[in-house]
Amino acid sequence: MPKQKNTKQKILEAAIDLIAKNGYRGASVRKIAAEVGIRESAIYNHFKNKEEILKEIISQIFTTPFEFNDLEERAKKGKSFLHQFVVAYKLVSFDKKMEKLFRVMMIELFQNEDLRESFLEEFHQKDIQQISKALFIMMQDGLIRSADPMFMAQEFLSPLFYIRLRVSLLRIDEKSTAPIATQFEKHVDFFWESVAV
C-alpha cells in the first residue's frame, strides 16, 4: 500500500506544478491551496509565506544528490564516487519538472536577495564543502594530487552547473539535448585525468 503524502508534501508538489506552469508570481498561495484542496490559511501551518515555499523547493533542486552519511567510504572509491555524483546530478538535470523549476529559479535569483543567499548556501556551502571533503580524502589516500580541495571542488562542480544550464536553454527552444547528454560523464573523465596521480 503506497504511503500517504502529508499535507506539506502536497503543498510543495502543487507549488512545483504551478510555478513550473505559471512562474513564481503566477503561483499564488490561494492557487496552491486550491490545487491541494485545503483552505489558504492551512498553508500557513506549514510555511510562513510563499517565499518560504520557494526556498524549500530551491533547496531540493540544489541539494547534493547523495546523502553523505558514508562520505569517507565513498570518497575512497575515487573516480567511481565522482561518477556516481555526476550520474545523480544528470538525472536531476534531465528531469522535466526540475528543469522547469531551474529556469524559474534562475530568473528569481536576480530579483530576490533572500533566494540568492539561500542558493549560495545550498549550492556553494553545502555541495562544494562536501565535494572538497571527498577530494581531500582522495588526496590523503594518494588517489589524486595535492591541491586546494575547495578550489578543486569548484572546478568539478562549475561545469556541471553550466551543462545543466545548457539543457534548460535547449529545452526552452525545444531543441534536442542529445548532443550534450554524454557531457556529464565526459566531464568526470576529463577532471579525473587532470587530477589523478
Write the layout of secondary structure elements.
Elements: H1 7-22, H2 29-36, H3 40-43, H4 50-61, H5 71-75, H6 79-94, H7 96-109, H8 113-140, H9 149-172, H10 183-195
Helix pairs in contact: 1-2, 1-4, 1-7, 4-8, 6-9, 6-10, 7-9, 8-9, 9-10
Instruction: Label the overall shape.
Output: elongated
Individual helix count: 10
Oligomeric organization of the protein chains: single chain
> Which secondary-structure class do the elements indicate?
mainly alpha
Would you write up a description of this structure?
The chain is mainly alpha-helical and 197 residues long. It has two domains: 7-50, Homeodomain-like (Arc Repressor Mutant, subunit A, Orthogonal Bundle), CATH 1.10.10; 62-195, Tetracycline Repressor, domain 2 (Orthogonal Bundle). Helix content is 71%, strand content 0%. The chain has ten helices and no strands. It has helices at residues 7-22, 29-36, 40-43, 50-61, 71-75, 79-94, 96-109, 113-140, 149-172, 183-195. Helix 6 packs antiparallel against helix 10 (183-195) and helix 7 (96-109) crosses helix 9. It starts with 6 loop residues before the first helix and ends with a helix. The model has no long low-confidence stretch (mean pLDDT 87).
List keywords for this structure.
mainly alpha; Arc Repressor Mutant, subunit A; 197 residues
What is the structure about, briefly put?
The protein is mostly helical. Helix content is 71%, strand content 0%.
